[in-house]
Fold:
Amino acid sequence: MIRFHVPAFLLLLAGAAALPVAASGAGDPAEPVAAVFAPGTTLAEAMDHVLAAGGVPLRGGPFANIVVARSADPDFAVSLHLHGAWLLLDPILAGCADLRRLPS
Structure:
């Protein structure tokens, strides 16, 4: 018999509902985005990918394969995917929050 745990189920639902919001991090090209690369990617490699995509790396994320970056290019999100980014997230939702004001 499978035991039904309400808190675990509610947490699963909340996570599933938040995922589309978190994955929509590439809306405004002027805003930073957290680019997630393949596991095992070093921070230097991830930053190289961001630079090759035409972006400016701002800081690393909680793991070496995540870089917060920005670009004025409206096709930056597409370019990041072409250079190996698996997922683009809102930096705050991705755990890359830096509440200091970013330079313009």
